[in-house]
Amino acid sequence: MPEYVDGNRLTLLRSGEQYFPALVAAIDAAATEVFLETYLFADDETGSLIADALARAAARGAAVHLLLDGYGARDFPPRFRRMLREAGAHVLFFRPDIRPWPIGRRPVRLRRMHRKLASIDGRVAFVGGINVIDDYDTPGHTPPRYDYAVRIEGPLVARVRAEAARLWTLVSWATLGRRWPGWRLLEPHGRDADPAPQAPLPAPEGQCAALVVRDNLRHRHDIELAYLEAIAAARRDILIACAYFFPGRRFRQALAAAAARGVRVTLLLQGRVEYALLHYASRALYGRLLADGIRIYEYHRSFLHAKVAVFDDEIACVGSSNIDPFSLLLAREANVFVRDRRFARELRASLEHAMRRGARRVRRRTWRRQPLATRVAIWIGYRLARLALAFYGYAREH
Fold first, then answer.
1. Could you check whether the bond before residue 144 is cis, i.e. omega within 30 degrees of 0?
2. CATH architecture of the domain with range 9-186
């Protein structure tokens, strides 16, 4: 169950246009430390913007820790690495083994660091789904990318900082084969340890929120269970926007049960083809979802990368986790669940605006009349996806 804490100040950030200026401002104000985790770090204008901000923070004495995924950020520019190293920043890669085709049954190589979060001075944090990449570099789409993040102040920042420090320490130990000096980050009250920055005091009339992470140890199903709890509690309305949607049986049954008890369940999904296998495999579920009374909208205006949800205008979720096998069974992810009507209504209004401007509803009647070629592609995609899950030993879980 999510561990909610009161007294936070949360700001919903829409796409990189709002996220990157807020992130740079926070980094430029850093006095003691910066943690930044991202799956992608592109060699573009946005990548340069963030790298420059990190270098400035390190040059003035802040302890800067940049953690990148070894596959997603495998092309991290050498010039960024040199600039950060010369400024005194530290850069690590999560599982840098990037061979494209694992030999044998080695799903461990598919376990990536997919979360996108930051902690600055233990006072400000960011969690969401936005990578460090130019939102306007979207060939074939109307920019910008459609995504969200949350800026956090208050007690929840301490949890974000602890998660970032823990993963940084584990990766540094695995990378260097010994206790990197950063191990002290996990022992702020130990002998000779530097104290961790103190998070701000709870804000009066602040917002209630929880950080929910997924790893492959104690928190393997936490994000999925948090979703299922919110779905089960919903009585009026569920709105989920997800870039990659290929849920397991338990998740689909929860949505169907909600629709059966009169809840209006709406899915906003990616309408454009990005990864063909997942695109067609996910559409094999449409017929059953539509038959269960679930409304499906496909977003065509731009590149949908959001992973958010609203339940009864009471609970909202923003994070990095898709509802697919990669996010729910393999990757490290981080989502924020918020119990606050104002925040939930703001997110809902943003989603409904996007649906009106750039989405088309999928009707059950027309879905049944798909062209033969499309039906064949869907059947093949679904079978291949199931085969891949079975090959790596995840078929029963999903």
1. yes
2. 2-Layer Sandwich (3.30)
Which of 65, 69, 121, 324 is catalytic? The answer is 121
189 is catalytic: no
Q: Which of 116, 135, 340, 398 is catalytic?
A: 116
- Annotated catalytic residue 305: yes
Catalytic entry in 65, 279, 307, 398: 307
| CATH code, 208-391 | 3.30.870.10
Verify whether residue 114 is a known catalytic residue: yes
Q: List the domain boundaries for the chain.
A: 9-186, 208-391
Per-residue pLDDT of the chain (398 residues; tens, 9 = 90+): 789 999 999 999 999 999 999 999 999 999 999 999 999 999 999 999 999 999 999 999 999 999 999 999 999 999 999 999 999 999 999 998 655 555 444 555 678 999 999 999 999 999 999 999 998 877 766 778 899 999 999 999 999 999 999 999 999 888 765 444 554 555 443 333 344 566 566 666 689 999 999 998 889 999 999 999 999 999 999 999 999 999 999 999 999 999 999 999 999 999 987 778 888 889 999 999 999 999 999 999 889 999 999 999 999 999 999 999 889 989 999 999 999 999 999 999 999 999 999 999 999 998 988 888 888 888 888 888 888 777 656 656 66
**Is the CB of residue 94 less than 8 Å from the CB of residue 175?**
no
- Rounded Cα distance between 321 and 251, Å, is 14
Query: Do 9-186 and 208-391 have matching folds?
Result: yes
> Which residues are CB-neighbours of 96 under 8 A, at least 6 positions away?
70, 74, 175
Determine which one of 65, 69, 114, 215 is catalytic.
Answer: 114
Q: Which residues, 6+ apart, have CB-to-CB distance to 238 below 8 Å?
A: 230, 231, 255, 258, 263, 264, 265, 266, 309, 310, 311, 312
Place of tokens 């991202």: 38
From 215, 305, 324, 340, the catalytic residue: 305
Q: What amino acid occupies position 6?
A: D
Q: Which of 149, 114, 185, 201 is nearest to 319 (CA)?
A: 149
Helix (H) or strand (E) holding 120: strand 116-120
Q: Determine which one of 43, 194, 237, 312 is catalytic.
A: 312
121 catalytic per annotation:
yes
